[in-house]
Amino acid sequence: MKTDNSFFERMEEFKYLGTTLTDQNSIPEEIKSRLKSGNACYHLVQNLLSSSLLSKSLKLRYTELILLDVLYECGTWSLKLREEHRLRVFENMVLRRIFGPKRDEVTGDWGKLQNEELNDMYSSPNIVWVIKSRRMRWAGHVACVGESRGVYRVLVGNTKGKRPLGRPRHRWEDHIKIDFQKVGYGG
């Protein structure tokens, strides 16, 4: 492939700055590797997260570090509901370790916190909202660089060739439009 007098070799998959890029733009594979990395970080500090010696605010700081690893380069992801669910499950697993079990006041039994209770206790935005906000921020950066830059042309350009049969997949640009509609921006 030739762009601006430069030739690029076509690759099916390569790792660039810690992100695995594929010719099919396989976001599920990238999320799987990010969650694997996040699980490794989580298991390194799980004893700290369940310790009663540390305050919940300090434990939440450790959680932010784990989520930073999971959310690396998330502004370029176009998520399906399945991936959103997997990310929320991971986040809730970490939060349950921090907040611990709850005790039923009537029976005295211990049980795990429900998702709604976790959302009430955790004041920060959930992981999916963070991804959507980073995606909108990245779209703003790309829009500001101008049409002459390569990143802009790659983002809005059309590829050549035939589309596969069936319903077209949502593109990154489609998700940006949906995100902007949800926050009430009509431009």
Q: What can you see in these coordinates?
A:
The protein is mostly helical. It has a domain at 2-124. It is 55% helix and 9% strand. The chain is built from seven helices and six strands; from the N terminus they run E-E-E-E-H-H-H-E-E-H-H-H-H. It has a two-stranded antiparallel sheet with strand order 1-2. A two-stranded antiparallel ribbon has the order 3-4. A two-stranded antiparallel ribbon has the order 5-6. Helix 1 (27-50) packs antiparallel against helix 2 (56-70), helix 1 runs parallel beside helix 3 (81-99) and helix 2 (56-70) packs antiparallel against helix 3. The longest helix is centred in the N-terminal third of the chain and has 24 residues, at 27-50. The protein is elongated, with a radius of gyration of 20 Å.
Helix and strand arrangement:
Blueprint: E1 2-3, E2 6-7, E3 13-16, E4 19-22, H1 27-50, H2 56-70, H3 81-99, E5 102-103, E6 110-111, H4 115-121, H5 127-145, H6 150-156, H7 172-183
Antiparallel strand pairs: 1-2, 3-4, 5-6
Give descriptors for this structure.
single chain, 187 residues, mainly alpha, two-stranded antiparallel ribbon, two-stranded antiparallel sheet, 7 helices, 6 strands, 9% strand, elongated
